From TrEMBL:
SUPFAM superfamilies hit by this protein: cAMP-binding domain-like, Winged helix' DNA-binding domain
Domain of life (superkingdom): Bacteria
Protein name: Transcriptional activator protein fnrA
PANTHER family assigned to the protein according to its UniProt record, in alphabetical order: CRP FAMILY TRANSCRIPTIONAL REGULATORY PROTEIN, FUMARATE AND NITRATE REDUCTION REGULATORY PROTEIN
An MF annotation (GO) of this entry: DNA-binding transcription factor activity
Entry-linked CDD domains: CAP_ED, HTH_CRP
GO cellular component term, pick one: cytosol
Domain named HTH crp-type: residues: 97-170
Length: 177
């Protein structure tokens, strides 16, 4: 497992035909590699999206520490639970939401994750490409670009290259309910 100190990371799987499917985006303060706790094998790959600093968290050492400090195991369970919840939300979103709602849901997720870490909830830089966003949401890159333009024309967001500004949070939230 690794804690992201700065930067960002995407996780992905590669299909038998060589197509890469993005499975997640991770930000500073988040942990990647929880998928290997049970088997010791990471079922997906990970790639940094920008200059990134990681801190290795050897699971066996965390287990030892949990025996001495019970709060450590409770925190690990909380993190794993959050990860499962995020996966469930993603599956529901991709299966049942419109393309526009999926993109807005991603922005709102990033917004709340940045806010939890003391960063702006309404202005942030997307470290991932439009292609990665499309792969993650099950959309073509052209659809992502078209939706970004539409949301901007509606006055809901402002886009300047990879910089995103969420202008109408309540309206955006209403789009994903």
């Amino acid at each position: 497992m690794y804690a992201i100190r700065s930067g960002s990371v995407k996780t992905y799987n590669v299909a038998s035909d060589g197509t890469e499917y993005v499975t997640g985006f991770y930000l500073p303060g988040e942990i990647i590699g929880l998928d290997a706790v049970a088997t010791g094998v990471h079922p997906c790959g990970a790639r940094t999206l920008e200059t990134t600093s990681l801190c290795e968290l050897p699971y066996d050492r965390l287990e030892d520490l949990s025996a001495v400090i019970p709060g450590v195991s409770k925190q690990l369970l909380r993190i794993m639970s959050q990860e499962l919840h995020s996966e469930e939300q993603l599956l529901m979103m991709v299966g049942s939401q419109s393309a526009e709602a999926r993109l807005v849901a991603l922005f709102l997720s990033l917004s709340s994750r940045f806010a939890r870490r003391g960063y702006s909830a309404t202005e942030f830089v997307l470290s991932m490409s439009r292609s990665d966003i499309g792969s993650f949401l099950g959309l073509a890159v052209e659809t992502v670009s078209r939706l970004l333009k539409r949301l901007q024309e509606q006055g809901l967001i402002q886009v300047n290259h990879r910089e995103i500004k969420l202008l109408e949070m309540e309206k955006l939230r209403a789009m994903v309910k």
